Structure formats: structure tokens, C-alpha cells
Amino acid sequence: MDERIILRNTDDPLNASIAGYMAHGGYKALEQAVGELTPRDIIDEIKSSGLRGRGGAGFPTGMKWQFASLDPKFPKYLVCNADEGEPGTFKDRPILEHNPHLLIEGMIISAYALQSTRGYIYLRGEYPHAKRVLERAIEEALASGYLGNDILSKHFRFNLTVHSGAGAYICGEETALLDSLEGRRGLPRLKPPFPVNSGLWGKPTIVNNVETFANIPYIVSQGAKAYASIGVKDCPGPKLFSVSGRVNKPGVYELPMGISLREIIYTHCGGIKGGGSLKGVIPGGISTPIIAPENIDCPMDFVHLPKYGSMLGSGAVMVFDDTVCIVRVYERAMKFFEHESCGKCTPCREGTAWMRAILGRIERGDASERDLETLQDVAENVTGKTFCPLGDGAAGVLLAAMKTYREEFEYHIKNKRCKVQ
Amino acid sequence: MPQVTTERLKILRGKIYELMELYPSYQAALLPSFFVAEEIFGFISPEAIGEISNVTGVPAAEIRGVASFYAMYKTKPMGRHIIQLCTNVSCMIEGAYDLVEYLKEKYGLTPGGTTPDGRFSLVIMECIGACGTAPAMILDTDSYENLTKDRLDTLLESYK
Amino acid sequence: MIKITIDGIEVQTDREITILEAAKQVGIEIPTLCTFKNLSPSGSCRMCLVEIERLSRPQTACTVKITDGMVVRTNSEAIMRARKAVLEFLLINHPLDCPVCDKAGECILQDLSAKYGAAAGRFKEGKRTNPVSFEDPVIVRDMQRCILCTRCVRTCDDLQGAFAISVINRGSHSLIEPFSGGRFDCEYCGNCLSACPVGAITSKLHRHTYRPWYIERQVETICGHCGVGCTLTLQMRENTIIRVIPDFEKGLNSGMLCVMGRFGYDYTEHEERLRSPLIRKDGELVPVSWEEAVEFTAWRLKELVKKYGGGAVAGIASGRCTNEDNYMLQKLIRYVLGSNNIDSAARLFYRPAVSYLERMFGQGITANLIPGIANSDGVFVAGGDPTTINPVLGIAVRSVWKKGGKVFVVGKSGGLRSNIKHELNHAEGAGALVLTWILAKVYEKKNFISENSIIDKKLSALKVPDMDMLVRVGVSPEALQYTADELVRLKNPVVIIGPETVLYGNGSKNLFLLGALNYVLNGRLFVLMDEPNTQGCLDMGCSPGVLVGGRPVELETFGHKMENTAGMKTPEGTGLNLFEMINGANSGSIKAMFVMGENPVFNIPDKKKVESALQKLEFLAVSDIFLTETASLADVVFPASAWSEKDGTYTNLERRLQRLRKGTMSSRGRADWKILADICKALGMKESYTDVKSVWDEISRISSVHSGVRYESLIGRGGIWPYGGEPLRGIEGDFEVEGLEDMPELPGFAQSGRVILKEDKSLIHSSSLSRYSPALMGVASEPLLMINPVTAQSLGLSDNERVVITSDKGTAVAILRADRGMPEGVAALSNTFKDNGFRSIVGYTIDPTLKSLNITDRVVTIERAKQL
Ligand SMILES: Cc1cc2nc3c(=O)[nH]c(=O)nc-3n(C[C@H](O)[C@H](O)[C@H](O)COP(=O)(O)O)c2cc1C
Ligand code: SF4
Ligand code: FES
Question: C659: helix, coil or strand?
Fold first, then answer.
């Protein structure tokens, strides 16, 4: 029996088809929801389950739904954030490729609860295979009467379209995603108004991550209580961790919230590759601050990680051992942020480019002590002053790395070469 | 490179009309239309921009602004096959930049460039969601992971 | 009531404003870059960061709305550091080329850097390089200097509605593109230029020729190009205009201008300006003194009146001259020389249209406010493109669409193309057919009960075409149905009427249909007006049948009023209209003519006929600023002062009275009113005038609608109709609609190989005047023949070819331009360029009902021009 909830049955190649999915009991939760529950019941259930969004910010999902359902405007749009752009993150991909009907079922239940008739899956352009899988799954669901204009003969209407992104990390940010879905440049919008009140085409819009939706069928079928018993208080449920870098068994793991970083690395991922020693771990994708080896007992959830100066983010664990140069990592990371900055606000647009340039010189051994000071100062000038969290994150993670690994930066400057090579 | 013909523009137009059905605003059909234009013409040609503008009513300047925002769109002609190689942190520490070097040495391919025979273009990607099986690339529309130089050679062999 | 504290100062307000606005109220200045008048806040430059108590991060004052109890700090150390940081970020890639930058001295980045910036830079990396472009005729772009505040893009999209520019690329590679480039819809309004806070977008006209501190004087005046009457500021040094800028606080245009207004001022300094009065001696026009010209004119006029009677004299007034000029001309013609023969080019369209509508509904029916259009929920346009004839009115129409309202255009949609849902473009001549169907449907759906039995009876008499007929003239049933359905729903509609409703036949019927549609919809009417003072020209009595104040001659009380107040006796009869004057000259009944600021030879069709008529006159006097086609036939030519050299008043199409102010004096011309007053005086007139105000004072004493309007009070937004007196409502009696009960005929299609020619109004040019503007000629230097691409193809012609257009009346040469907006079988040519004007190669008849221009002989052949 598969203990997993989200990645349940993903070893079965047939699970991606509706027949396979139904053979494992799929779409039961939807029938139950539509047959026995009112939209209100479902929202209450999600609220009491304590489910937090899995996209990075950990916002309580039930609360978001309630805001949207209280807004009197119609139509309401339901959007699945499948942009998964955060470097290090590949946790939504197994759902999209191997368990597409779980996502679709989760979205249909959500649509029913939110009285939404139109949904879009904003899928990152870098997942062409997932696009094919999802489109086929949607067709199957339509043919089986789970999608369409009269779902389960209950006069409930919901249609779903896959919308491909085209290589813009910022479009993972929900308001930029909405602009992008509307066919514009993906620039973050001013908040308020929030998407729940004024999202796609000015209508109430609920944006949730793939993994968030994938939790819904379980909560509906097994109840909020059963769900809340998994993981930790204030942050319950199973969580997908995508582990990459210098571990023996990288991959996506479904584990309860609150599990320690140490357990993930050593128990589940088979420890450090090549037997080297651990140098640091990024716990939630490149935009979350790095954690030093002495802190790897931290519980991995939205509540505890901030106490260790970091964040759960997308749960993308990136493991570095002593063969990895931290300066090089952050130079590359800053290149990413520069490339992905949307260009709307000054500090991020100019700051990321500037920081990348200084980091490049440090990495090449072409910098002075003064440059390190300037870098620190520029990063501080960006922090807290950008329009959206992208630029803020870029500066924040650099500052954290410079604090913990300062000698490595200094080594580059003094010796004009890397410490590890 | 497929030529721009009225026939092909007509196909594009038909597809755009279909796409416009999927959204409450015509402009929302832009991003998917660009993919269709690439499929038909190999890149988003000026003629395609004109046609998309005519059908959706979105001004050409805006269309250019939108298309140029997204890294994956091809706004100039490219090789027959496109190697989209990830070099982000997880791929980098597993040797992605060695592969970049290798492509340059062996195939004369530089980032953003095309081989002289027009067979391959190389695009450096940010994370493509294959960090657990790094280094990785997308070749046209297929993903390949755990790359090595040898594997790269064999793979490229099979793309004519 | 919301109460907040900013830097310890309490601010109270009952409106939900932003912190920025609240701070401004108490005089606290928060620096901004991306915020700009009339644009919604963007929050992107991050210059305006402030601290709010209990919030951990600084917030942008431009976007955050105040809430009760908020405590804000704008001057803490952290905020000063943040400002310095933003400026440093902006400067790292900004060239430090202030000494050669046209913006220096009025650059916000420069000013803020001086105030909050760091003393020295720390940026060691190479600066990003972005393109500098001189491609555009009037605009220079240096994207190296751009700070990406996007004020220009937002202005172009949200206010101008042209969508010609966009940010391309992203992140630190973002730049603003592309303005021109042919396929993009830049209208060269230059409004982006006012929006740019730095030197990234500047005017090419005065590039490197000035610094803001060179400007010695500036004067607020009214644009002289079209009937909107935008307020603008002339900035001058010595005797030349350095530039024209809009004023965001004054005028109906709220800081917006069009290409003509912003760039087309330079014709006033053209070297071909007339410099001295001329008299024809031995067949040649030779310079003479002012005294000689005035005396000679007075003598000739007196002589001819004595010989042939007052009725042998005629005057042509001008919509480009001020009210005072026009008043003085009618004073000369009517009261000094005793002739009622006075008319103007308003005769061609504007006057008949407005009078007809006034006949239906009463005086002032078209006097509605342009800014009010933006509050409407739907606009119906027929007969012309407001975005080219009256551009700033056109952008008000676009703003209706922007706010979710509906726009309908019967005919070519032109500059409103992206604002309409369906085209209602029809085959040439089928306008009445389309309008009839729409009116009938709306009338039926609205279940309209009229209080006007005359209109009601006519509405019931209409014969409605069936859908089949409409399809045959190229209109889709879907478009028609949509139009009718949506029109009925409108709560606050606007109907805009352009010249084509009258110029190509069916005039009275089209006007009736549109007037009735507006009546049934309970909308507001606007009649497009291409010259700045056509309305004023009518108000001054420069039209047969109309006295000063726009009151009809047939109401005797007004004739008496003239006599009682001014001791002026109105001559008997109605007088001849413009066409009758031409005919009169031809037949010999008109012997003398005074033409003021008008060019009938070029502006009335059938050039040969008009020319030969004027040549038959015994005496022709012309006052103008250039030696036009007409002036070169004259016996006396007076050099007049141009728009920027004049004081006086204009009345725009809303009937807003506004003050024109003198800026430069680059010619030795004199104001028309002054020239005329001198002639009147030489002919024995008692009154003498010291300045333009004294002329206005007389007008306000005599004119029953302008009574009591003081010249000095016409500042700011001007005088708004009705001014003093009451307008006339409901003139008694029936009016005629030609062909009302006929089923409109299906238009005849031109035989193959021949094309129907129409007049094109280019956005860039204002009639033939702007051919003297180097700036506007730089944007559009050649006559273009706009033609449907399919038609062009069937003629074997392609884009950008030089073609010869031949009609029964003449030929013109133009560059062919394929335009999908033109219906098949139709081409359009402007009436701007010397020797190649539209009107010179067509003929005309007079509309029997409206007495307006009815352009004929429009069937032409188009051939490739022979290589030179
Ligand atoms: C720069 C940036 C990138 C983001 N990228 C993603 C992403 O790729 N996928 C995602 O689900 N959420 C992403 N988010 C979070 C979304 O804005 C949003 O919070 C999330 O989609 C909400 O879904 P949830 O409540 O289910 O987590 C991103 C946020 C930021 C600021
Ligand atoms: S921080 Fe600013 S520039 Fe960066 S992505 Fe967000 S809005 Fe765009
Ligand atoms: S003025 Fe507030 S962010 Fe630019």
C-alpha cells in the first residue's frame, strides 16, 4: 500500500490516464464533494485542515478561498500556478507528468467550492512533456463528464485550459502570472487590490500552486482531522521536497511537514555524494537564504525555518559539499536574478545587474576589499525596497551568504582564485 | 526556414481565431499565438506579428513588447534544432558549463548562436526543473537529463 | 474624516488619497519620478519611499492610500539613504552628458541628484549601451538616458491611445521602442515628450539650440490648427518661438497636444511670409506702402460701389482669423459698403450642418463640452475621423473605449480602429442606407415617444432598407445588429458628425438621420470643425442670412438691434453665398471681392472655374500671410499677421470663447481687423479702434449672445456657451429632408479601372497652411493616395509607387499607399500639397437643400507615373 498522498501511485505508468487513476480510486473525492457537500462545507473543511499554500509563501489556503468566495463579483477564475520556476524546484513536475488527474480533480473540487466556471493551468514553458500529459488528461476528464458544462449531471460547469508560459521566472509571482495570462508582459501588479478581489480581467481569481491543489482530494475524502494529523501543528500535511546537488539520491520526496533537514539529507537521500563534508544547504529554492551545516536539524516547515533565518519556499533543497564554491554559486544565482528581473522597479533592475557584475569580478579574482563593501551596501540598498519579492530575495540571499561564508569571498579577493579548486 | 506565404499566414490566422475562443479577451491569445507562429515559421516573424496584430487587434508595438519579454520566444531565425541547456546552480555544480565548453569546441556552438550548417542553435537556460538529474537540457520539445559529453554526442547524432 | 500625521504634521481629509497627495496638501515634498499628471500610479521608480509606523518595510507614497491614524515619516535617515540609493541605481547606467543634453535645467533626475544624490559614483563596471535614434522626423530618442519610468508608454497607451511604443526586452535590458518605423502607429503627438522626465525623448525641432534658461518670455495662447482650441504655451527667445508646450493646469486639453499643435508652429517663421503690401502694377505685384495699399483699396471699392451698387461687392471671411477680424470684415462688407454678400469656407460643410441641426433643435444644439465626451458610455461617429480632424477630441473618444464604453464608426474607422468592435465601413455612397437602418432599429427598440411631431412624422416616413441591401454594400449583419443593440443601452451617448456626411451628397438626409438618432438616444451632438474659428466666423455674422450673434436675418428684431445699438443699417436681402459669389464673379454681377485669410482657388473644387471667375473681377483684394494661389491673382495683397502674432478671440467647436495671445512678431504683417478698420476708416467709418479689445467691446455690445462678455474675463478655460444671452430654441416650422421617403439607392459602382476619389484628412496637416511648416512637412512631405490594397492590386499598382490621378477636372500626382481601411474601389487624397490638392481635380454642385458643397466628378483613373 502506497503511504504517499501526493505522489500516490506515480510508480504506476497507467496512473497518468484516467482509467489508471480511477482504478486507484481517483475522482471519488470529486463525486463525494459534489454529491454530499456544499461549497461552503468544502471551504470550511479546507480552513480547518490548516492547509497552507505550497507555492512558497505558505498562505492559508482556506482563508484565501474564503476571501474570494465572499467577493460578489462573477465570474470567478481559478488558476493553477504550475510555473515552477524557482531554481532547484522540480516538485510539481511529477504531479504534472505522473499524476495529472490528481491536480485536475483537486481543481474541479476547488472550482465547485468557489463557484468558478473557468480555470487555467499556467504551465511553465520548460515542461513540454507535462503539457502533452495535461492536455490529454483534460480531454479524458471532459469525455468522462468530470469537466465541461454539466459535470456529473449536477448543472455544475467548469472548463480548464493549459496556458504555457515562455521562460519568465517572474511569472510565477501570482500577479505577474495574471498579467502574463492576459497576454501582457509579466509584470507584478500593485497590491491591493489582491487577486481574490481583482485578478484576471478584474474578476475575483484564486491562484494556487499545483501541490496545493493536489492536497484537496485527500482533505475532502479523508477529512480535515486526518489531514491535520500529518506534519506539525500550524503547518500540517505532507510536503514534496525536491532535493538536488551533492547527495547520493537526489529526487522528489514526499515527507511530512516539519521533518528535519538532516533526516532529508542523510536518511532519505543517502548522505553526501562522494563522502565529502556538507558545506551548506539552501532549503527552499535559490531565493531562500542558505543554512550552515550546524543548523541542519531545523524542522522543514513554514513556521520553523524563519527562526533559522531562512524560509521553506518551494521546498527545493539544494545541498552543497566542500567541492562547491559559494562565490560561484551566488554569482550564478545573481546572473539568474538579473536575467529574470522584470525591469519594472529601479532597485531590482539596476541592483541585480550591478551585484552580478561585482560578484563576477570577485569570482574572477579581479576585485578589491572596497568592492566587497560596495557589494554589501548595494545589496542592502535593494533589500526591502523593491516592488515585488524577487529583487528583495536576490539581495537577501546574497547578504545571508556573505555573512556565513565571508571568508570565502575574502579568499577570492586576496588570492585571486577560488578556495575549492 | 519555412517561407512566409499567404497560405501559411492563413493557417496562423485560423489558429489564432481558435485560441481567442479560449479566453474572454483577445489579447490573452498572444502567448499561445507566438508558439503557433514559431511552429509555422520557425520564429516570430514580422509578418506573423502583423497578422497577430490584425486578428487580435493588439497594436504591433505592444506585441513586440510582449514577445520580447519572454526568454523562450524566438524573435529571430534559429537553427533546425534548439538545444536549451540549463546552467543554473544545480546543473552548474554537476558540470553544465563543461558541456557549454564542449559544445563550443566540438560543434562551434556558442550561447545564442547557431551552427554554420543551421542544424543546431544553443540557448542557455535558467532552471528547467530537472535539478535532481542534473545536468539537463531540452532538445526541441524533449527533455534529456544526467548529461555527459558522450551522451550529448549520441543524442545530437540522432537529430539531423 | 481621515486623520494622519506626516513628519509630525497632521493632515485631515475626507477623501481616500495617497500619502503623496496628502503630503502635498501640507507642503511636504516627496520626490517622485514615475508619477505623472493624469497617469495612474505605477510605484515602480521607488523614489517616493516613506516610512509608515508599524510597517517593517518602506512603502511608496505614490501608491499607498492613507488610512486613519497612519503615522508617516518622509525625512528619516533611512529614507534619505533609500533616495540616494535609487538615484545611484538610476545614474549607474545614465550618461553624465548633461552639458549636451537638451533636458538639462529641467531634468528631474538632475534636480533630484543635486538634492538627494551622492557626491561621487562607485560604479566601476562599463555602462550599458542603448541606442540613440534620429529616425523620427520630429522626435529624438536617446534610450541611454532612459530611466524606465514608463511615463511615455503609459501616456501613449492610456492617454493618447496610440499604443505606438512599448517596453521591449526585460530587466536591465529593457528599453522603450519603437515610435516610428512605419508599421507602428506613432501619431507624433509628442505627448511622450512632455511625459519624459529626463532627456531620453526630446524634440528634434530645437535640438541643441536652446537651454531652458534661454527662454525669455512665454505666453499662453490657443492653438491655431483645428476647431478644438487646445491651450498651449509659446516659449520664445527674441522674436522666435523656441518651442510649444502644453499646460497641464489650463485649457480643455489637460496637457495633451497633437502633432499640429506641438510641432506645427514654425510656419509662422517661414521665409515666404509676405513682408509688404503689394499692388498689381503693369500686371506685376509690387511692394507698396501700407498707406498706398489702404488708400488704393478704399478708392477702388468706393468707385465700384458707386458704379454697380453695394450688391456688386462680396467678402470672404476665414475660420483661421479671430472673431475680431471676422467682425471687422462683415462690418466693411455689410455696413460700410452696403452688401450682404459675405460668406466663408464654413459654407462647404460646417455652416450648413450646424444650421440644419439648429433648425431641427434650436440654437446651440452642438455646443457641448469636449472633456465631457470622456464621461460618456458610448460614441457614435459618422462622416469623418475625429482623431485626424480634431485630434484632441479624438483622444477623448478613445478614452471612452478605455473606460469600457462603446465606440461605433460608420465609414472608415481610421484612428479609432482599435476602439471599435465591428467595422461599419460601407461602399462609397451607402452611408445614408446604413444610417437609416440603424436609426430605424434604435427607434423601434427604444419604443421612443417623441415630443416633436415634425421629427416624428419624418421618422415614420423613412423607408428602411432590408439586410440584403446592406450586405451588398459591404456591411455585416452582425455589426449592424451589435450597433443597434448596444446603442439602445447607452445612458449617456455622444454623436459626432464629420464633413463627409455633407460633402458627397445626401447631405440633408444624413444630417436628419444623425440629428434624429441623437434625439432618440438623448445624446450630445458634436460637429467636427477643421479650422480654429469657423464657429466664431459664423457668430460674427460672416454668412449670408446670419447677423452678428448668429441670429438669422429674417428675424427683424436683430436687424433693428444693430441699428439701435450701433447705428448700423443692415442692407436688404439675404446676400449671396460663397458659390453664388463665384458664379456672380463669373457672370459679371460681382465686380469686387475682399478675401481675408482664405484660399478659394485651392479650397473650392473646380480650380479652373474658380480661378477664371476671380480673374474676371474688376477688383480683388486679399489679406493673407502667404502669397497663396488666390493672393497671386489679386490686385492688392495685404500681409496679415499670423496666429502667433495675434491677439483676439477664437470660438471653438464647443463654442468656448478663448483668448489668443500675441507671442512673436516675426513679420511686418498687421492684424486683419486692423487692416480692415483702416480701410473702413478711409471709407468714412466714424468709429476708431485702439486695440483688439476695443473691437471686442463693440461686438459684446451688439451681439445678443455675447452681451456682457468682457475681454479680460476670457482667461483660463474661456467663456462657455451660452455666454450672456439666451440661445434661440425651436425655430418654428418644418424643414426639408431631401429624398426622405425614397428608398436610398444602392450606390453605383465605378466601372472597372476607375476609382472613386475622396478627400483625405491627414493627421499631420491642417489643410494647406501646414505645407509651410518645415516640421510637419518633415513628417509628411508628399501627397499620398490612400487606396484599398485589393483595388491597387487590380490596377497593377503597388505600395509607395508614384501615381498620376486623372479626373475630368484635372490631374494630381501622389505616392500610393495601400490602406486596408479604404473600401474597395475608393481612394483618398488630401487637400494640402501645392498643385496636387484633391479639390483642384474634382468638380461640384450646390446641395439644393443645404446650400452646401456637393463634390462631383470624383471618378478618376490612376496610373503609374512616368519615370522622371
Ligand atoms: C518571484 C516569485 C516567484 C514565484 N514563483 C512561483 C512558482 O513558480 N510557483 C508557485 O506556485 N508559486 C510561485 N510564487 C508564489 C506565488 O506568488 C503565489 O504565492 C502562489 O502561487 C500561491 O499559491 P499557494 O497559495 O498555493 O502557495 C512565486 C512568488 C514570487 C514572489
Ligand atoms: S523586484 Fe521589481 S524589477 Fe524585480 S521582478 Fe519585482 S517588480 Fe520586477
Ligand atoms: S513615484 Fe512612487 S514609485 Fe515612482
Answer: strand
Chains touching A (at least 3 CB pairs under 8 A) are B, C
Which CATH class for the C754-864 domain?
mainly beta
Based on the fold, state whether residues A242 and A115 are members of the same structural domain. no
- Count Cβ atoms within 10 A of the Cβ of residue C435 and give its class: 0-12 exposed, 13-18 middle, 19 or more buried: buried
- Residues A224 and C558: their CA atoms lie apart, in Å, by 88
Sorting pLDDT into bands at 50, 70 and 90, what band is C662?
Answer: very high
How many structural domains are present in chain A? 3
Helices (H), C403-527: 431-446, 453-461, 467-472, 477-489, 500-503, 507-521
| Domain co-membership, A248 together with A191 | no
Residue nearest to atom 24 of ligand 1 (CA): A53
Distances (CA, A) of C234 to C223, C224, C423, C763: 10, 12, 40, 22
Measured CA to CA, the distance from residue A159 to residue A181 in angstroms comes to 16
For residues C381 and C409, the answer to whether their CB atoms sit within 8 Å is yes
Q: What is the DSSP letter of C771?
A: G
| Nearest CA owner, ligand 2 atom 6 | A388
C-alpha span between C537 and C552 (Å, rounded): 14
Distances (CA, A) of C330 to C541, C543, C544, C582: 7, 9, 10, 18
The complex's ipTM works out to: 0.95
The dotted CATH code for C350-527 is 3.40.228.10
CATH number assigned to the domain comprising residue A366: 1.20.1440.230
**Residue B56 Cα, gap to closest chain C Cα (Å):** 10
CA-based torsion, C188, C191, C195, C199: positive or negative: positive
What are the grid coordinates assigned to A330, written together?
A: 551566488
Q: SS3 of C342, please?
A: strand
Q: Are residues A317 and A339 in the same domain?
A: no
What is the mean pLDDT of the segment spanning C586-590? Answer: 97
Per DSSP, C809 falls in state: S
Over 80: is that where the pLDDT of C61 sits? yes
pLDDT over 70 at C708, yes or no: yes
pLDDT value of residue B29? 98
For C526-578, give the DSSP string: EE--SSTTHHHHHHTT-BTTEETTTEETTSHHHHHHHHHHH--PPPSS----H
Fold (CATH) for B81-157: Glutaredoxin (3.40.30)
Stretch (H or E) spanning A81 = strand A77-82
- pLDDT computed for residue B34 by the predictor: 98
At residue C749, the pLDDT reads: 58
Q: Sheet containing A251-256: which strands, arranged edge to edge?
A: A251-256, A238-245, A316-321, A278-282
Co-location of A196 and A250 in the same domain: no
Instruction: Provide the 3-class DSSP secondary structure of residue C717.
Output: coil
Which neighbouring-strand residues pair with C620?
A: C593
Could you tell me if A63 and A133 lie in one domain?
Answer: yes
Hey, what CATH topology would domain C2-75 get?
A: Ubiquitin-like (UB roll) (3.10.20)
Q: Does C79 touch chain A (CB under 8 A)?
A: no
How would CATH label the architecture of C294-346+533-644+663-710?
3-Layer(aba) Sandwich (3.40)
Into which CATH architecture does domain B6-69 fall?
A: Orthogonal Bundle (1.10)
Indicate which atom in ligand 3 lies nearest the CA of residue C20. 2
C155: nearest Cα among C259, C45, C34, C244? C34
- Give the residue among A226, A253, A227, A224 at the shortest CA–CA distance from A239: A253
**What is the three-class DSSP state of A267?**
helix
Atom of ligand 2 nearest to the CA of A388: 6
B92 vs A contacts (CB less than 8 Å): 328-329, 332
Mean pLDDT within C646-654: 96
Cell numbers found for residue C501: 456626411
Enumerate the domain spans of chain B.
6-69, 81-157
State which residues form the domain around A253: 235-321
Contact C284, C263 (CB under 8 A): no
